[in-house]
Every structure is written in C-alpha cells, then in structure tokens.
Amino acid sequence: MNNKKGFVLIEIIISVILLCVVGLALLKANSNQKNIYSIVSNKLEFSKYVSILSNQHSIEFHNTDINLYELVKNRYTLKDEVLISILKDTKVHYSQEYKSIILLNTQTNENAPILNIIIDEIRIFGKQGVSRYLTVKL
Fold it and tell me: Residue 135 pLDDT > 90, yes or no?
C-alpha cells in the first residue's frame, strides 16, 4: 500500500482557483469603492464652488464668464498658492433669468394670478468637465 501524506494535484488546482476567485472579488470591491469615492468627491467639490457663488449675487457677474479667484479675491484674503491656482483654473458662468407665467384656471377658463419665477443657473468649468446647477425661486 502506498500511504503518502500530501495533496493530490487536483486539490491544489481547486484551491488555487478558489483563491483567484476570492482575490478577484476583493479587487472588484476595491474598484467600486474608488468609483464611489470619486463621485462623492466631485459632488463635494461642486457644492463648495456653488456655496461660494451663492453668496455673490452681484449684477456685474450676470451672463459673464469669470474664474472663481476673481469672484472672491476682494471678499477673502487668500494666501495659499495651491488654492489660488485651483480657483484661477475653475471658470464659472452665472446667469439669472426672470419669467412670468400666467396660470389658467381650467374649470372657468379665467386667468389666475401671475406667477413670477427667478431661475439662477451656475455652470462650473473645471478639470473634471462641466457641472450645471439650477435654482428656481417663486
């Protein structure tokens, strides 16, 4: 009788395949986490830029293309050169549009009160592409 202690070749092949499957699953999970982090990071960066712009409703910036540094340099004292270069590289277009809508009462065919709407549009041109932000005020 042959009583060798050890593994058969098929057992080694199966264990290597199982390790590969587990490793691929871990790599896929890591890749998904990086994609989610990238999306959340971009949204956070965009919301920071929008918060800077939401405080600037000066008529001089309407329908103009301007970089964020020009928008905030008179309001804040910036000393960080990296931040200044990021703000200079980020271009912004801000516009505001006023619309008046006459509502029609469908039951009596009479004109209802006029609804005044203000639409703010902010477009941010950064390294990741163009982002657009709309707000509607009644």
Answer: no
Joined together, the tokens standing for residue 121 give 């549009």
Mean pLDDT, to the nearest integer, of 23-51?
81
Find how far residue 111's CA is from the centre of its chain: 41
Place of tokens 């949204």: 43
Evaluate the CA torsion angle 36, 39, 45, 46 in order and state its sign: negative
* β-pair type (110-126, 91-105): antiparallel
- Whether the model clears a pTM of 0.90, i.e. scores above it, the answer is no
Asked if the model's pLDDT at residue 14 lies above 70, the reply is yes
Is residue 125 a part of any domain in this protein?
A: yes
Cβ neighbours around 62 below 10 Å, total: 13
* Within-domain flag for 46: yes
